[in-house]
Design brief:
single chain; alpha/beta; 8-stranded mixed beta sheet; 3-stranded antiparallel beta sheet; 26% strand; globular
Length: 266
Amino acid sequence: MTDAPHFDFQADERGGVTVLRDGHPQSHVDLHDPELLVFEYVAQLAIGIDLLPPGPIAVTHIGGAGLTLARYVQHTRPGSAQIVLEPDAALTEAVRRELPLPRGHRIRVRPLDGATGVRALRDFSADAIAVDAYDAGRVPADLLTPATVAQYRRVLRPAGLLLLNLADEPNRRHLARVLATVAAEFPHAVVLALTDVMKGRRFGNYVVLASGTALAIDEIRRRATRLTATTTVRPAAALQGTAKPFTDEDAEPSPTPPELGSWRVR
């Protein structure tokens, strides 16, 4: 019998709280400053959110944890309708108890995995879909299949934005296949990563912003220069190369990180 997961909430000197599951960091939340995005890939995902037109937006999040990005959207765009697909109901309950959501929010958490939950969403119902879901440190394969990517396209509005938090080894073979798969539905895409990760010096996160319409890459680069962590932006095509897209049969989860739970947090 598998032991139930254990959750901890570790306060820091800045007034924020790190959510830990079985000792592994999952999220950082600052209830007093939802715009404080400590983890670099969350700040990179937020660049995509900020590119969308002003005002309330509809966002679907695949993967919830501490709901850091959902809180950011609620704070910067009050009244935004948000759906979070997070299968770990115990984690969601613990987060709601220890880190309450703000009053008047429109964040709805559904206890479903992403591939299942996205199929139940209405056509053209989201301005953005943010995919930040990991299982034992790996992005699940069923979130990266052509069938699921087609679901993302179906749910997004014509000018909507797909945001992906991925992970790969320095050879970037997995990332290249994901980019090729995404390109079939979203012809315009850029990739953001810490500069040492982009240079292939270590395993790390890659954030993909993809759309059916042209992206303002110069503006994305300008916003990236304002981030605390040094970030590089590259066109997805430059990293995709001649990689073949996944099929529904051969899609693979992202590679196992070298130190599970310590190289990334959400």
